[in-house]
């Protein structure tokens, strides 16, 4: 009986010591291959793409509302539209910006003006600014 208690206690101690503590979203390395609510963003080397992919679950939601529900964002107001300037701490600068795609196509409207349907796939990609434009 005593041996059984010692064995059970040892197993509990070992399992408690090896349990992983959940990390905050902004500290997890990004894996952006799926189209689910994946909003992990960390700065990457210039050879890697950084993006946030989301799938709308309801009709009538704006792309900005979907992003706000799943990430910490920064925006700048232009005319009647909001421009996403930062996602989970990674902000645009003189060389990069957050490009915005809906169902694989570059959006012609801002995130706050883009009305989604359920199932629409939205992707924000941290892209280099083309100096020739």
Give a quick set of tags describing it.
single chain, 3-stranded antiparallel beta sheet, 7 strands, disordered N terminus, 133 residues, 2 helices, 4-stranded antiparallel beta sheet, alpha+beta
Tell me about this structure.
By secondary structure, the chain is α+β, with helices and mostly antiparallel strands. Helices cover 19% and strands 29% of the residues. It has helices spanning 2-18, 63-70, and strands at 50-55, 73-78, 81-87, 90-91, 96-102, 105-106, 121-128. The strands form two sheets. It has a four-stranded antiparallel β-sheet with strand order 1-7-5-6, covered by helices on one side. The protein has a three-stranded antiparallel β-sheet with strand order 2-3-4, covered by helices on one side. A hairpin with a 2-residue loop joins strand 3 (81-87) and strand 4.
Give the N-to-C terminal Cα separation.
78 Å
Strand segment tally: 7
Largest sheet: 4 strands, antiparallel
How much of the residues is beta strand, in percent? 25-35%
Number of separate helices: 2
Tell me the strand order in the biggest sheet: 1-7-5-6
Give unreliable regions as ranges: 2-39, 42-47
- Determine Rg (CA atoms, Å): 21 Å
What is the mean predicted local confidence, pLDDT? 74
Structural class: alpha+beta
Helical coverage, percent range:
10-25%
